[in-house]
Target: Troponin I, fast skeletal muscle
Amino acid sequence: FSHLQKKRRAATARRQHLKSAMLQLAVTEIEKEAAAKEVEKQNYLAEHCPPLSLPGSMQELQELCKKLHAKIESVDEERYDTEVKLQKTTKELEDLSQKLFDLRGKFKRPPLRRVRMSADAMLRALLGSKHKVCMDLRANLKQVKKEDTEKEKDLRDVGDWRKNIEEKSGMEGRKKMFEAGE
Model:
């Protein structure tokens, strides 16, 4: 018994060790990715945004402002175009995924449970408080009285068939049949 407990403890300890090693690896990978993103961002900014040098004269400042406004307008146009493209592609993607969903036929019907419910209860559930009609099906059935027919009277008169067979069986029955036949 203690041998099994030792094995379990060793397996648990090994699992814990592997888990902590995986977490440590994940943390280092995340840190590396963050550093790489920061370097990429710095490179992009250095390439696309040259350092700002403010000129001394008023006319040069106005020229700089005009250039900045033109850049802002072009960037805004690009941003708007990309947003429109993104909306268009997301809409297409939703449509395609819906078509795919329809083609696969992934809709699963929920398992239906049998419920014992009277017709009145069903109508009440469907119609709510509007339901006033009673759906007692037996109340609408016709009452039929039995009439004695001639066949039934004949059957009652004949009696039990076992008696007839007992009477005709054996020597006495044959004698009666023979006598009746003559």
